[in-house]
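cron nightly-structures :: item 1 of 1
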Amino acid sequence: MRLIDADELNEHILQRIKCKGTDGNYKEAFELQSMYRYIAQLSPIYDPDKVITEIKEKSRVMSTKDPSHKYYKAIGTRVCEEIIRRGGM
């Protein structure tokens, strides 16, 4: 499975609906409208806010030698990748 940009897909469908409506193919335009509504009501495959929250929770505070930036947060790339692949769920 792969993620797609639903907004981009719906924009494409809207363009097709406009074309089908003008050439008299109303049945196909109606089917495309149903598909558009279905895609628009789907929830995201994962919650980006949950992903960001978990990344922040797993971050570690690291000290630096630069006194103006005494501390910064860091997280291992493997941990970050695991969180994103799981979708933060």
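cron nightly-structures :: done
The chain has a mean pLDDT of 77.
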